[in-house]
């Protein structure tokens, strides 16, 4: 397949670079005997751009292309200058009264350099501060033409997109793999105006009315006195709030499920959550919910992996996304809609479509694909793009309109408002990443950081001085129009519809739709999180909420906490499970996943060479793990026993049984040298086994399995030939994990 070739190409290129470095006649290379190259003293052409480096955006603040070719590197030209363009003679020494004297206030270069640095940071997002973004292309299928007049959904229409994935609770530098909801925000730069689909990886939310957003976030964020714990929900204030505020229970169930610890941004579903209103060319409307379906399937980490990763590789999701894109394994999603008739009661199958704590099971309303998104370019400048991108659910193109969902209504206020603090003024739409690709002709003027130099004297309507320009558009000119939905005559009141009072039936639906192993994970997650709370009353109150959802779930968590299980407050609802909610029991493509291959450089490497080809051909990335870096049997070593850890591999292959390397840590044997196999290899196998990953071994590699005692257990395959073992492992990877290995004790 194409991605497989691209992956292979990228890995081969990296291997060549390693080989070049090891060539003795390169100065500074290991073993070359020549000293490291000195700092150059004369200008030289800039280094070639990396694949992900290009020039600054070539659009003006009003959206027109400038025609300037993209520059290759961020730093242009040979000479360093000030911000005003004056060439500099020295940037290492401040201007002083003599070599030992005080610094002079007149040093304009020092002041410019330090002042700019002092102001490099901007406020991080109040939520979703930690994230990663990428560029891509969306292509419409044309299957939504009868539903909406949004032009970007027309058949074959290509639209540039920028996506930002995020966690919710943590600060900008927090770990990627914490248990949390993930943001999935997409900016479609459509020709009819920007459309932001600002969604999450879970289809429901904690609250039904946006006025409570500060409450749930204050409860989830670190405690205000000690500012701990960071990026965690396992603490008293979170569980205090959600146990008192039971409409959060459905979302919390998703958080406690495997969905709370995604394997990769590439393997997450996305949801617009709210119901939107679609309007077609004839002005007819339907209600709709947006879904993103990942081509690679929906996969999760297991809890221990997530915890280990938070320490070993806190950037795991960010790295995974960028490695995949740079190697040509472009992540893909289909944009899908669930469509409902636009009836006055705004319900479907008895489910209130304005209640953002409810889903409509896919079995009741099919999820229909309307287009495809491919992410194919990493950011060039993380701050300029990922940090400064500003999403807003009110950025809507003609054909997509909002509903009265009270959560969405509050968001329509909040997102515009927050950018004014975060991006320091009202002109953030002029920042390159936020510039629409549709022509902009507004009459907004002035304000902090105004980039445009507007001409004319009549930024107002009506005017005669500009010949009446600009005019307002009608349907024929693709104007956005607000759907004239009738608003019922009703008293002004602070209240919810009665249908919003059902807080438990859909949490139960989710629980009932899980396989036993997924239920087991949910029980363990609740037990862990509540076990980290100090207040007994909070644990008891949450157990009551669990009893109202499902008595078995409640009993299991209560047992783990050593507390009695309460009775449900009312008989639990009868629900029909939705199999679409489960991640287990399906077969997914293995593309883009990572296979660790333990090699013994002293052993038979011919098999390994053929195996690498087979892994590439399956669209996956083989990473060779050896006692030392450099090359092994003419192949590049990507991980050593010191740098490799099981958590980054989706499957493990053992091509040899390497004896302990000189830097091996102590093992259970008296001296590492006495052990037959390096203890870190044994740890790799043990962890992969515990995390239910497929493991394969052949030849000498099988002795490692014997040493760890896992031979013969489910998902551990052995054989004489690498080829056959890999074929079996590949089949196992289709299920993502060897689920039988988890003891499912829920009945
Ligand atoms: Fe957000 N949310 N949110 N949110 N949200 C923000 O906007 C807010 C909600 C979501 O990558 C903020 O630019 C309120 C639901 C994502 O830049 C802020 C309410 C959903 C992102 C804000 C909600 C989301 C944000 C912080 C309740 C899923 C990250 C910085 C009414 C459908 C976007 C910013 C990015 C970010 C407010 C509820 C998703 C403060 C008041 C529901 C993915 O404006």
Could you characterize the architecture of this molecule?
This protein has 747 residues and is of the alpha+beta class. It has 17 helices and 20 strands. The protein has helices at 2-22, 108-118, 213-220, 236-244, 249-256, 303-312, 316-326, 382-387, 406-422, 505-513, 516-531, 536-549, 551-561, 606-617, 679-690, 702-708, 722-733; strands spanning 131-140, 158-167, 182-190, 193-200, 270-271, 276-279, 285-294, 332-341, 347-348, 351-352, 368-377, 400-401, 594-598, 621-626, 631-632, 635-636, 639-640, 651-654, 694-698, 716-719. The strands form four sheets. Strands 1, 2, 3, 4, 5, 6, 7, 8, 11 and 12 form a ten-stranded antiparallel sheet that branches. Helix 16 links the parallel strand 19 and strand 20 (716-719). Helix 3 (213-220) packs antiparallel against helix 4, helix 5 (249-256) packs parallel to helix 10 (505-513) and helix 15 packs across helix 16 (702-708). It is globular. The two termini are 42 Å apart. The model is unreliable at 18-34 and 50-57 (pLDDT under 50). CIS-heme D hydroxychlorin gamma-spirolactone 17R, 18S (HDE) binds at residues 125-128, 131, 164, 166, 183, 185, 198-200, 205, 210, 213, 273, 389-391, 407, 410-411, 414-415, 418.
